[in-house]
Design goal:
The complex is a heterotrimer.
Chain A: E1 4-14, E2 19-30, E3 35-39, H1 46-53, E4 61-66, E5 69-70, E6 80-83, H2 97-104, H3 118-128, H4 145-158, E7 163-167, H5 175-192, E8 195-200, H6 203-209, E9 212-217, E10 220-226, H7 227-232, H8 237-245, H9 262-265, H10 297-300, H11 319-326
Parallel strand pairs in A: 3-8, 3-9, 6-7, 7-8
Antiparallel strand pairs in A: 1-2, 1-4, 4-5, 9-10
Helix pairs in contact in A: 2-4, 3-4, 4-5
Chain B: H1 2-9, H2 21-30, H3 32-60, H4 86-121, H5 124-138, H6 142-153, H7 157-184, H8 187-194, H9 199-235, H10 247-255, H11 263-291, E1 308-309, E2 326-335, E3 342-352, E4 357-361, H12 368-375, E5 384-387, E6 389-392, E7 395-396, H13 402-412, E8 413-416, H14 420-423, H15 430-441, H16 446-459, H17 465-468, H18 478-489, E9 496-500, H19 508-525, E10 528-533, H20 536-542, E11 545-550, E12 553-559, H21 563-566, H22 570-578, H23 618-622, E13 628-629, E14 635-636, H24 646-661
Parallel strand pairs in B: 1-5, 4-10, 4-11, 8-9, 9-10
Antiparallel strand pairs in B: 2-3, 2-5, 2-6, 6-7, 11-12, 12-14, 13-14
Helix pairs in contact in B: 1-9, 2-11, 3-4, 3-11, 4-5, 4-7, 4-9, 4-11, 5-7, 6-7, 7-9, 8-9, 9-10, 9-11, 10-11, 15-16, 15-18, 16-18, 18-19
Chain C: H1 4-49, H2 54-59, H3 65-75, H4 81-93, H5 107-143, H6 150-165, H7 168-182, H8 195-224, H9 227-234, H10 239-276, H11 282-291, H12 295-323, H13 327-330
Helix pairs in contact in C: 1-12, 5-8, 5-10, 5-12, 6-8, 7-8, 7-10, 8-10, 9-10, 10-11, 10-12, 11-12
The chains are: A alpha/beta, B alpha/beta, C mainly alpha.
Chain lengths: 343, 663, 332
């Protein structure tokens, strides 16, 4: 059982003049034995954070610590493992799946120091992810997407990791397969006690697996806390926005009066290459300067994580906030009509 | 030139097929072109081996009495200025020509491979330098580089081998770099690095095996090119020097006397071309054998064949203003498969009333997208569409030429596709892409059409529409592109919007914006909507009615509100249960659907869902259940359809969970 | 509705676009300049990379040491390398490319005499290749898309593979034989009237022309399967509008990306074709100069050819930028 901790991690790509700050000073802890969910939209930097933790994205600043010591990025012993999104790209098509898994098996058992029997270990791992060990000799091309993703999981577990990072591991799978992988994941981690950072854009999936949830927006963590609290009583307006956008059966779009002002509803997601000043979320924020012009601080100053659930918002949890989200105001937005002369 | 065409011909091999390299190489030789090329190559190589020992005597024997003779029975290709037999000289020259070409190719491949794979082993800075050098060198044509190096290495066979070999290296290095970069992007290389696999091992175990095929193909084609390049240098007098001779040297000597004795120039020329072609074709055949991919996911493009009426009486065309927007009956889509044609859509029928929103859900491969393309007549040859009835706004699409329906469909039907990036033409401005339809169908002037386009962009709430209309698709964000697509559909007066996975490529917050927009448009003009999606939640949120498709058939047709609670088909229930939502019970495992969706080429007898169904009985495995309409107008195709008692549903769910374990 | 959001996003987007175009131009120009410098340096270095003493090699073993020393001095080869390099660079920029060791004429004069003939040949071939490739490739792409018209496809592929595999100088030889020797229709050597252009231009253009047509056909087929072509069809545009407005520009873009190098190949192809047709251009000059070890002339002509190739590449890039607005921001 180990704890993975990101301390002020920044990842920048490109030149100083026109670069991209994919991860911007992120501090986040994955406590020992827990599953932390990381949600955010595309371009929020969540995959880059995952890659930084295993050393395939270069750290510009900050540290990634495992139980207080830097995560080893060289040599054979790699206690942090990553499972990739696309099982069609993450397995070498010219290698049998047995060889793929075997490549990650360490030569010696780190606990006992005795040499590991690679073949036995491969069989053990395949059985562990509920695959037929006879599949060890087959190539990835002969497997289904769900089976491939289990192989990828087995390969990550072969390194006997302290922490596993799962980067959108179900989003490339058909809905009928997704459930099998999620069930397996929960069972395995419960059994092994491995910590996990579970990255997904799908809040419902994260809710199902994670005990804590971190929300990322344009390279920064904007809210972090126990899953039930983040989902039940979100403090950051972006978290609320994400929750509201989850399609729910029986809540038809546009049929309930949505208090969001039109300007906010139509705002485009920001370009990560040109992040907005101050709070990155202010050009889309329903409680920010777009709606309340006096809140100029959002444009100028980036908020710190000083609120409940580490919400990085100047106005997190203020009474006006909860009122704005919970009760539809009398001035609910007019029903948007195409061709309406006012727009 | 030859090398370049090779680069275009080969990419990375498709890894969706089982990797059994040996059998694929052999399969190439079984194709007619592959067999011919292989045989030709073998002949050339054999000739190069046996010609000098057999015929050197005849080739070098001078005969002052028979100088510069034309072709005769004794000298098939005549004689040269010393009376030597040109035919035998051409045969013997094959040794030197092929040998030198192979040597030069070896230099090219080795140097190119070293430069091209340096990136895997070296640090970032060294790689940048190598890439820069290769980039500059590759801009210069090979023959120019060869001349340059010929000056340095000196005139003669040795100099020419080095010159041509080195001159070819940049192009080969560039190819190797491109291939390596393609492999390095793949996650399995990253996975190996995370596992602590060293650089050399990554190169040897992961990178090289995956780029070997295209490299070998290009080396084979490159050998043909080298052969020709060598002939050029020797022809110019810069290659093989007298008394040695290769085909190029013979050609150069022959050209001076082409008026008196054309055969002396033509014979070595033909030899060069044949040998070059043998290498070239062999490489191309390999490339084709390896790089060929066949997918059914993509609808092949061709002339639109009019859908054929499958059965039933010919309906008279009635203009029914109050009638349904779309009526489909017994729709079948047939695509050519491996061997026999397959029917990924089979007997689909439904109707959409004015202003109604109908959703189609199903897993990938269920035929939902093909259904959308078929009813909108966008399936082209060799795909075929038949139906008993296909009417749009009362007009029978099964009769009359396609031309006649163009305006009706162009203005009355709007389409929104999944990926707004690839669905808009990258080289045309957004405004003009919108304006186009109005110009064709409404005969508007360019300015009027553009003004309307701006107006429609405004209608779909694209900010600063006038300026945005002058931008290209890549300057739009994903959500804005999808709005522009919807705006394109609004250029006419659509009665129906067909949206095929319109939000799958978008983030949730943007998805909500796009769905809101569609809902607003529907409300204003009572436009009907056919929404295809894999996401049950999206469909049930937006639609009035849902069609559930499985293996090319509709298995259930029910009101969206009933989807979560009272679905009657086990597949529908499974689909709903398998997707976690914000109310899913955290303490019990997710329901799963065991097994895989069936291949449309091998549909089981009976109900296609039977192999995955917890309720399946023998009848299900033999008899196809019909799509029956119940009293409330819901349709379901299942022998065991019926209101399921809560405890029954729970048992079914448990069975599915248990079954999922052993997928 | 002009909210603050959209205004700021638009501002950013516009700035990006302007910058992208400007950056593209700057990048291409700087690449051209760097390549030119590499070319100059390579041309200068060429003479020093020749193993042994190039002067001795040029004059032969029998030449007296005094003559060798004198020639070395005349060529400036006795000076320190950096000084030589400086002299060379400054010479190039003042139009002084040295003196031919054979004819004793200034290299600049030699090139000025020969360049027009080569330039005319190259430009004419350039135009002809494009005139062959674009209609043929586009038509073949449309006809054979989606696996249709298999026979036409086979005929076209076979012919183009054959023609593309035959190097330009062999096409020249065959043309000389058929048209000149057999039919006596056209002159086969020298540069006299317009008719003397026909054979050299055809032999130079036909190979690249058909290969380009082949690439264009493949690209056209790929583009015709693209989603945006489906969109155009969903708009119910007439077929011709779909092909010409939506498919062709995109197919041309990728064809230029892949086949741009072919066009610069034609510049170098003049070397061989000129030798076949005794064309009084730079191509015959460089070969005779290499054979007579007239290094200053070789250096000069290499420089001219290299510059020509770089200019063609720049032209291709510009054409690409005009056809496809994305290309200005795509690669870095």
């Amino acid at each position: 059982m180990s704890e993975l901790r990101f301390e002020d991690v920044t990842v920048r790509y490109g030149t100083r003049r026109r670069g991209l700050t994919a991860v911007d000073g992120v501090s986040l802890a994955v406590p020992a034995g827990e599953i932390v969910g990381l949600v955010g939209e595309s371009g929020s930097g969540k995959s880059t954070l995952a890659r930084a933790a295993v050393g395939i994205a270069p750290l510009t600043a900050g540290r990634v610590l495992l139980d207080g010591r830097p995560v080893p990025m060289h040599g054979r012993r790699r206690p942090v493992q990553l499972v990739f999104q696309d099982p069609y790209s993450s397995l070498d098509p010219r290698m049998t799946i047995g060889a793929s898994i075997g490549e990650t098996v360490p030569r010696r058992d780190s606990a006992t120091g005795s040499a590991l029997d690679r073949r036995a270990e491969i069989i053990r791992l395949l059985e562990f992810v509920e695959l037929d060990p006879a599949l060890a000799g087959s190539f990835p091309g002969q497997l289904s997407g769900g089976q491939r993703q289990r192989v990828a999981l087995a390969r990550a577990l072969a390194a006997r990791p302290e922490v596993v990072i799962a980067d959108e591991i179900t989003s490339a799978l058909d809905v009928s397969i997704q459930g099998t992988v999620l069930n397996l994941l929960r069972d395995l981690l419960g059994e092994l006690g491995t910590s996990m950072l579970f990255i997904s854009h799908n809040l419902a999936v994260v809710r199902y697996v994670a005990s804590s949830i971190a929300v990322m927006y344009l390279g920064r963590i904007v809210e972090y806390g126990p899953a039930a609290q983040v989902l039940g009583d979100p403090q950051h307006p972006y978290t609320r926005d994400l929750l509201a956008a989850v399609p729910e059966s029986g809540h038809p779009a546009g049929r309930i009066a949505d208090p969001t002002p039109q300007a906010v509803a139509d705002a485009e997601p920001a370009d990560p290459h040109h992040p907005p000043s101050g709070c990155h979320y202010h050009p889309r924020c329903p409680i920010g300067p777009l709606v309340r012009p006096e809140r100029d601080i959002c444009r100028t100053t980036a908020p710190g994580p000083d609120h409940r659930q580490h919400a990085a918002c100047h106005f997190a949890g203020s009474p006006t906030t909860s009122q704005a989200t919970n009760t539809p105001t009398p001035t609910a937005r007019p029903v948007p009509v195409p061709g309406d002369p006012t727009i | 030139m030859a090398q370049l065409s090779a680069i275009t011909a080969t990419g990375l091999p498709d890894d969706s097929r089982p990797a059994r390299p040996g059998s694929r190489w052999l399969a190439v030789l079984r194709t007619p072109v592959g067999a011919c090329a292989g045989l030709g190559l073998l002949l050339v190589l054999a000739l190069a081996v046996v010609a000098p020992p057999l015929w050197s005597g005849q080739a070098n024997r001078t005969d002052i009495g028979a100088m510069l003779q034309g072709p005769s029975a004794r000298h098939w290709a005549g004689t040269d200025n010393l009376g030597r037999d040109i035919f035998f000289r051409v045969l013997v020259a094959s040794r030197l020509s092929v040998e030198l070409a192979l040597l030069a190719t070896a230099i090219t491949v080795l140097a190119g491979l070293l430069l091209g794979t340096a990136g895997v082993l070296l640090g970032r800075r060294a790689v940048r330098l190598v890439t820069a050098v290769v980039n500059i060198a590759v801009a210069f044509p090979g023959i120019l580089l060869a001349l340059f190096f010929a000056v340095i290495f000196g005139v003669g066979a040795k100099g020419a081998v080095l010159a041509i070999g080195v001159a070819g290296a940049p192009a080969f290095a560039r190819l190797a770099q491109t291939l390596v970069a393609g492999i390095e992007q793949r996650d399995f290389v990253a996975a190996a690095r995370i596992a602590g696999v060293g650089r050399v091992r990554v190169l040897v175990r992961h990178v090289l095996p995956n780029i070997a095929e295209p490299l070998i193909v290009n080396a084979a084609i490159g050998a043909g090119g080298t052969l020709l390049a060598f002939a050029s240098l020797s022809f110019l007098g810069l290659g093989v020097q007298s008394p040695g001779y290769d085909w190029g040297a013979l050609l150069g000597a022959g050209l001076t006397g082409i008026y008196e004795q054309p055969i002396a120039a033509l014979a070595p020329g033909i030899a060069v071309i044949l040998a070059g072609l043998a290498f070239n074709l062999f490489g191309e055949a390999l490339a084709k054998g390896i790089g060929l991919t066949t997918t059914l996911s993509r609808v092949p493009l061709g002339r639109v064949r009019r859908p054929v009426r499958s059965s039933g009486s010919v309906e008279s065309v009635v203009d029914n203003d109050g009638g349904p927007v779309l009526e489909v009956e017994d729709l079948v889509v047939t695509l050519p498969g491996h061997g026999a044609p397959i029917s990924p859509v089979c007997g689909v029928g439904f109707r959409i009333e004015r202003g109604e929103a109908v959703g189609v859900v199903g897993e990938s491969g269920s035929g939902k997208s093909l259904t959308a393309l078929a009813v909108t007549r966008l399936i082209e040859e060799p795909g075929r569409v038949t139906a008993a009835r296909l009417r749009f706004q009362g007009t029978d699409l099964l009769t009359g030429p396609a031309r006649a329906h163009r305006r009706l469909l162009g203005t009355g039907l709007a389409m929104v596709f999944q990926d707004p990036m690839t669905s808009l033409n990258p080289t045309r401005r957004i405004g003009r892409q919108l304006a186009e339809a109005a110009r064709w169908h409404d005969g508007l002037s360019r300015a009027a059409a553009l003004a309307k386009a701006v107006d429609r962009l405004r209608a779909v709430r694209v900010p600063a529409a006038r300026r945005r209309a002058r931008q290209y698709p890549h300057e739009f964000s994903g959500g804005m592109r999808q709005r522009a697509m919807i705006g394109m559909g609004l250029m006419g007066t659509p009665a129906l919007i067909v949206a095929d996975e319109p939000t799958t490529a978008l983030d949730v917050t943007v998805q909500r914006q796009v769905l809101d927009l569609l809902a607003a448009i529907r409300r204003r003009d009572s436009v009907a909507l056919l929404l295809i999606s894999h996401d049950v939640a999206v469909v049930s949120q937006v639609c009035d009615r849902v069609l559930v498709m499985y293996a090319g058939r509709i298995v259930e047709d029910l009101p969206a509100a009933d989807l979560a609670a009272t679905a009657r088909h086990p597949y529908t229930r499974a689909l709903v249960a398998a997707v976690p939502d914000m109310r899913t019970d955290l303490d019990s495992p997710l329901a799963v659907i065991p097994g895989r969706a069936p291949d449309p080429a091998r549909l089981p007898a009976g109900c296609a869902f039977a192999p995955r169904c917890p309720l399946a009985t023998d009848r299900c495995r033999t008899e196809q259940p019909p799509l029956e309409t119940d009293a409330e107008g819901r349709r379901v195709a299942c022998w065991h359809a019926g209101p399921v008692a809560p405890e029954g549903a729970a048992r079914e769910r448990d069975t599915m969970i248990a079954a999922g374990r052993h997928e | 509705m002009t909210s603050l959001t959209s205004a700021s996003t638009i501002g950013a987007a516009r700035g990006l676009a302007d910058n992208a175009a400007a950056r593209f131009v700057a990048r291409r120009l700087s690449r051209f300049v760097v390549s030119l410098w590499v070319l100059l340096t390579a041309a200068f270095a060429m003479i020093h990379l020749i193993p042994g003493d190039p002067v001795r090699a040029a004059l032969g073993i029998s030449a007296s040491p005094a003559l060798v020393a004198e020639r070395r001095h005349a060529l400036g080869l006795d000076l320190p390398l950096p000084v030589q390099y400086w002299h060379y660079l400054s010479g190039v920029f003042t139009g002084d490319l040295g003196t031919s060791t054979v004819s004793q004429l200034p290299v600049g004069r030699v090139i000025a005499d020969r360049l027009p003939a080569t330039l005319q040949l190259a430009v004419a071939a350039f135009v002809l290749a494009i005139v062959i490739a674009v209609p043929l490739g586009a038509l073949m792409g449309v006809l054979t898309r989606g696996g249709r018209a298999r026979r036409t496809e086979l005929a076209f592929t076979t012919t183009s593979v054959l023609l593309g595999a035959i190097p330009d100088f062999l096409v020249g030889v065959v043309l000389v034989w058929i048209v000149g020797v057999h039919l006596h229709w056209l002159p086969v050597a020298g540069r006299s009237g317009v008719d003397s252009f026909v054979l050299p231009v055809v032999s130079l253009a036909i190979g690249p022309g058909v290969v380009l047509a082949r690439i264009l056909r493949v690209e056209m087929i790929a583009v015709l399967q693209a989603d945006y072509v489906r969109t155009a069809r969903a708009k119910r545009l007439p077929a011709l509008a779909v092909y010409l407005r939506h498919a062709l520009p995109n197919a041309l873009t990728s064809t230029i990306t892949l086949g741009g190098l072919l066009l610069s190949t034609m510049v170098a192809g003049t070397v061989l074709v000129e030798n076949v047709f005794a064309w009084p251009g730079l191509g015959s000059t460089i070969v005779s100069s290499i054979l007579s070890k007239d290094y200053p002339v070789v250096q000069g002509v290499v420089l001219v050819y290299g510059t020509g190739v770089l200019a063609v590449n720049l032209l291709v890039d510009v054409a690409l930028a005009l056809l496809d607005p994305r290309s200005t921001i795509r690669e870095s």
